[in-house]
UniProtKB/TrEMBL annotation:
Amino acid composition bias (Basic residues), ranges on this chain: 15-26
Superkingdom of the source species: Bacteria
Lineage of producing organism: Bacteria, Bacillati, Actinomycetota, Actinomycetes, Micrococcales
GO biological process, one term: transmembrane transport
Subcellular locations according to the entry: Cell membrane
Pfam entry (one): BPD_transp_1
Membrane topology (UniProt): Multi-pass membrane protein
Family statement: Belongs to the binding-protein-dependent transport system permease family.
Keywords: Cell membrane, Membrane, Transmembrane, Transmembrane helix, Transport
Membrane-traversing stretches: 37-60, 94-116, 128-148, 179-205, 226-248, 284-304
UniProt protein name: Carbohydrate ABC transporter membrane protein 1, CUT1 family
GO cellular component, one term: plasma membrane
Occurrences of domain ABC transmembrane type-1 (ranges): 94-307
Family matches, as CDD domains: TM_PBP2
């Protein structure tokens, strides 16, 4: 056989191989594209089961008069939402939640910044102080709430004993009046979550370059001018992260209120999460509880992007 006769046969074999690969399955590149999705599949399935499916169920149940004792119930439209928006107890719990979140987040941001500034310098004492400062953040919120409640017990708690030593009336009960109960809950939340804010802001301070501050000092700027014009604007992205994360977490607060006050005295410290718990697991009205939860989700969906836009404008000098 000559060389010219062998070449057409080889070309025909190559063409047959390409057509067979085209018909019998994907090539190596298409197969490698599927590998990342195979790795992500278990996590996506868990996410679907643990978050998306319950969210769909809550949204579906909010349109029904469902009850733990009475089954799935029937479709009632927006009746549960109307009840949640017009019920005075639910309105008070929403207002209490908003005031609590605004108060603790602002106080924790201020105190966290005050702690982050002196701890930003890389010294062994600051490293030790930072490690000790994270201990409250490492304590489970339910455990911290139980410890605080025992310390504030009017009969045998440490707080009542030492206040009596300082001349205050014996058996001082802070949790017996609304102002004292709110003060305890705010202090408890600040004690536990201020280290989290301080850690984020401290990372922001440590990531800033030294050259702009050194140049400002050479030009005669004082410490306050350097902080206001150089340090603080450079920390805006970290402030935004801490603010958004703390706002979302503060809206999720439940265990400290449930353990320390259980919404009392009366219903003065009943936030929306306690109200949802009371409606769903004490009054057994699952439909109304789901409607209240959906309304809380709507508030978060409107509030968090608005906060990000406002802080983003301050971070971008072109939008100011």
């Amino acid at each position: 056989m000559s060389l010219t006769e062998a070449r057409p046969k080889e070309s025909l074999r190559g063409a047959s191989r390409k057509s067979a690969a085209r018909h019998h399955g994907p090539g190596p590149r298409q197969g490698t594209r599927r590998i990342p999705w195979l790795y992500l599949a278990p996590a996506m399935i868990v996410l679907l089961i643990m978050t998306i499916a319950p969210a769909i169920y809550i949204f579906y149940t909010s349109f029904r008069n469902a009850s733990i004792l009475g089954g799935a119930g029937r479709f009632v439209g927006f009746t549960n939402y109307e009840t949640a928006l017009t019920d005075p107890a639910t309105q008070q719990s929403f207002l209490a939640t908003l005031l609590f979140v605004a108060g603790v987040v602002i106080l924790e941001m201020i105190l966290g910044l005050a702690l982050a500034i002196p701890l930003a310098q890389q010294t062994w004492s600051n490293k030790l102080a930072s490690a000790l400062m994270l201990l409250p953040f490492a304590v489970t919120p339910a455990v911290a709430a139980m410890v605080f409640k025992q310390l504030l017990n009017p009969n045998y708690g440490w707080f009542s004993y030492y206040m009596n030593q300082l001349g205050f009336p014996p058996n001082l009960d802070l949790l017996g009046n609304p102002a004292g109960a709110w003060a305890v809950l705010i202090v408890l939340d600040m004690w536990q979550w201020t280290p989290f804010v301080a850690l984020i802001l401290m990372a922001g301070l440590q990531s800033q370059p030294l050259e702009p501050r050194e140049a400002a000092m050479v030009d005669g700027a004082n410490k306050w001018q350097i902080f206001r014009n150089i340090t603080l604007p450079g920390m805006v992205p970290f402030i935004a992260i801490a603010l958004v994360l703390r706002t979302i977490q503060a809206f999720k607060t439940f265990d400290s209120f449930k353990i320390v006050t259980n919404g009392g005295p009366g219903n003065s410290t009943e936030i929306i999460n306690l109200g949802i718990h009371r409606i769903g697991l004490q009054s057994f009205n699952i439909g109304l509880a789901c409607a209240s939860a959906v309304l809380l989700l709507v508030v978060l969906l409107l509030l968090v992007p608005a906060m990000q836009r406002v802080i983003g404008r301050r971070a971008d000098p072109e939008e100011q």
